[in-house]
Design goal:
Chain lengths: 544, 88
């Protein structure tokens, strides 16, 4: 077994046979040509042929990878008609009295060099585009064709680097992966591979091509960027398993995207996603979550070396709300302390931080920090459908204090003529036994509950979930926890508010039916679990 | 001759796709000469490679210079492209 490592640009696992993509090595000779006109005519006809080819590649790409990605070939066509590029070719033919091939090659070198010398990585990658179209013209001038390697039914196409038009010209049904010795993650090869949904590993290095042969069996792991050539049995088994679990995820994606979260007997539920950074929104949308059930605002504090300003927070919240385009976004206010420490808060060391100065307790004793966040949230609320959720609630008094502070913030905004949405939902987390037990008193004060099962488990069972020695005592399905959730659900519904679960238990599909029977209205899970939970919901039948 | 100053708003700057879009618009108006000035470099707007070579990134100020038939309409059309972030 040989193992190579590069950079994975699309997360997927594939197995197949190595097929080395050989470009025909065209040696371009500088030949003296007195008849410039005929050389220029040759360039023109080669260009016309190239345009025709690009047009058909464009149409093929349009079908296979969509308009946004196909556009590159439209732009290639435009580059072909770029005046500077064409003038340079004609100029070289006329002044140096040389052959068309040579003029095109020199022009390509000059333009590619111009892009390569730019500081921007994206622009540097454009050098490959100039070479791609130039090589196409030269190929048409010489009448040579490039060789797509040996054709197997499941090819792992290996090359030094692949030009965009080459990746699309390949028979897509037969290609299972791309591996290139060079290339960047900005290259179109990488982008197109991502859109063809097949793994690609780039930058494996020069020695790679010398050590592989056509027909070698191999696995490509786009997650880790590894290529296993002639794998041993253990590796093969491991990767087959990984491949299957990924295919299962993909199957869910294809089958369940756009489908409703509805049980066989017609009960609907919301399935939202939990995220901790603006960067995760892509995954939320990809997995078709109905909204964001828990947006942890801590990243704003953890990434900063000082308190994040109102403006900083406002921009982050606005971005999330805008990108979610009217779908529910529930942002949880600052939840630091315990395992999440931030230096500039200057907090004292505690004997028992899980039971200490954390989350809402910090916010209520330091309202000046809390108000900055609330102002930012309310200001952002006009850009979408916002819910605000408060963590670590244990008493009615805390909720009353929070509501008073929210009213103060709104009053200030009113006075300053700053707009905010009047339909922002306010909710509390049910993550302490106390909150669940007094949920009948909390429910009339708020618009929703969200059960944080991680802390609820830890506090109910007096078990630190991080301590592996007591794992056997920490039964997350413990009846006490389920009873507390049920109690909160009953009290929520008696008061006409909704209840969701945003802890890890929400993604535990062995409990989905139990939660549905309790009347839980929303489950918020990691983006990658959304469709799995949807699948489970769609197979539940509560009438049985 | 008319000019207009715009700022690049889209995240990726004027990369290949926007450059192509600009060149396409300019070619529809062969009677009007369009130049883009950014980072102290001048680029003929009908040549996508020159536009890219000016390396206009997000936040970069660009001066659009139009000279010829329909110059006002052309300058407005191109400025609108920049302002819309090339729909990215």
């Amino acid at each position: 077994m040989k193992v190579f490592k590069g950079k994975g640009v699309y997360g997927a696992v594939a197995s197949g046979k190595i097929s080395v993509f050989k470009k025909q090595n065209i040696t371009i000779k500088r030949i003296h040509c007195a008849n410039s006109e005929s050389e220029i005519a040759r360039v023109e006809s080669a260009k016309a042929k190239t345009l025709e080819q690009l047009q058909s590649i464009y149409e093929k790409a349009l079908k296979e990878v969509g308009e946004t990605n196909a556009q590159i070939f439209e732009i290639h066509m435009m580059m072909l008609e770029d005046d500077d590029y064409n003038e340079s070719i004609v100029n070289i033919i006329e002044t140096q009295k040389v052959n068309a091939e040579y003029a095109v090659a020199v022009t390509a070198d000059n333009f590619a060099e111009m892009f390569s010398s730019m500081e921007d990585a994206y622009m540097q990658a454009r050098a490959a585009d100039v070479r791609d179209i130039s090589n196409r013209i030269i190929t048409n001038l010489t009448g040579a064709t490039s060789d797509g390697g040996d054709l197997y039914d499941n090819m792992i196409v290996c090359a030094d680097d692949l030009a965009p038009s080459e990746t699309v010209s390949l028979d897509k049904d037969k290609v299972v992966a791309f591996v290139t010795a060079h290339g960047s993650s900005n290259s179109h090869t990488a982008i197109l591979a991502r859109n063809m949904n097949i793994p690609a590993v780039i930058g494996v290095g020069d020695e790679f091509l010398a050590q592989i042969n056509d027909g070698d069996e191999a696995f490509v792991d786009g997650f880790t960027g590894e290529i296993f050539v002639n794998p041993d049995d253990e590796t093969r088994d491991r990767l087959i398993l990984k491949q299957h679990s990924e295919e299962e995820k993909k199957r869910l994606l294809q089958e369940l995207k756009g489908k409703e979260n509805i049980t066989e007997d017609g009960k609907r539920i919301n399935i939202f996603a939990n995220i901790g950074s603006v960067d995760n929104i892509g995954a939320v949308l990809l997995n078709d979550a109905g909204g964001i059930g828990l947006f942890r605002s801590e990243f704003l504090y953890l990434e900063n070396s000082d308190y994040p300003t109102e403006e900083q927070q406002f921009l982050a919240y606005k971005r999330v709300l805008e990108r979610m385009a009217g779908k529910k976004v529930i942002i949880r206010t600052l939840d630091i302390g315990a395992d999440k420490q931030v230096d500039y808060f200057g907090m004292k060391k505690e004997e028992n931080p899980a039971l200490g100065y954390r989350a809402i307790r910090i916010c209520l004793t330091r309202p000046e920090i809390f108000k900055v966040q609330l102002r930012a949230l309310y200001r952002a609320s006009v850009y979408g459908n916002l819910g605000i959720m408060f963590p670590m609630i244990t008493s009615v008094r805390e909720v009353e204090q929070i509501l008073t502070i929210c009213d103060e913030v709104k009053k200030e905004l009113n006075e300053q003529g700053v707009k905010y949405s009047k339909t922002v939902e306010l909710g509390v987390m049910i993550e302490t036994p106390a909150a669940a037990i007094i949920s009948d008193k909390l429910a009339p004060l708020v618009d929703f509950f969200s059960v944080g099962t991680n802390d609820l488990t830890q506090y109910t069972l007096a078990c630190d979930r991080q301590n592996p020695d007591i794992e056997s005592f920490c039964n997350t399905h413990h009846e006490a926890i389920l009873r507390l959730i049920e109690m909160a659900a009953e009290n929520a519904h008696k008061n006409g508010i909704w209840i969701g679960i945003c802890g890890e238990l929400a993604a535990d599909t062995s409990l989905t039916e139990t939660f549905l029977r309790m009347g839980i209205d929303e489950l918020s899970v990691s983006p990658s679990f959304v469709l799995k939970v949807r699948d489970t919901v769609r197979h539940c039948n509560l009438s049985k | 001759m008319v000019t207009k100053k715009v700022t690049v708003v889209n995240e990726q700057g004027v990369h290949m796709r926007p450059a192509g879009i600009i060149a396409k618009v300019v070619k529809e108006h062969p009677e009007c000469e369009v130049t883009l000035i950014a980072n102290g470099k001048e680029a003929k707007a009908k040549a996508p490679m020159q536009i890219m070579a000016a390396c206009m990134k997000q936040g970069c100020e660009v001066e659009i210079v139009c000279n010829g038939a329909d110059e006002q309409a052309v300058v407005d059309e191109i400025a609108a492209l920049f302002e819309s972030g090339f729909d990215e």
